[in-house]
Amino acid sequence: xxxxxxxxxxxxxxxxxxxxxxxxxxxxxxxxxxxxxxxxxxxxxxxxxxxxxxxxxxxxxxxxxxxxxxxxxxxxxxxxxxxxxxxxxxxxxxxxxxxxxxxxxxxxxxxxxxxxxxxxxxxxxxxxxxxxxxxxxxxxxxxxxxxxxxxxxxxxxxxxxxxxxxxxxxxxxxxxxxxxxxxxxxxxxxxxxxxxxxxxxxxxx
Length: 205
Fold this sequence. Notes:
4 strands
């Protein structure tokens, strides 16, 4: 056995080993403190953070990944909403244009109705005056009568033929099944089997 005791100084080679071990411990300690200065650094072996209910909290990298996914999802939904908004704007413009066309047609029909009423009044007046008058006056009355009898089957009005109907410009017809102006002929009416008020289109003479 060796005669060395705890009170005796260490041999030179054992001192070097002890000093080297102490230096390694100091270096490791310094490295830990240096790494801990980095933002978001979690020392090895550190248990996950937990909230008040004891549930583990996500790490910084997990939070960053979730935020990226959320931003991407919001961007996709924003694009979808923009597309829908554009479609709605286009449909609104089309509806407004159609409404304007219908208003114009109603104006034309109203003017035609007024014109027909005026011609009818003139005809009645001329007819009363024609009693006992020369034949040339009767011919004028007959001409006016022909204008009124001249009925248009496109708008269901009298005073003109279908070839000169103002509805022709808008590709519209008077539908006997709808009992209104529509963008289809009566024979092609989708409501043909269930007409308004049971109405049936009259036969042409």
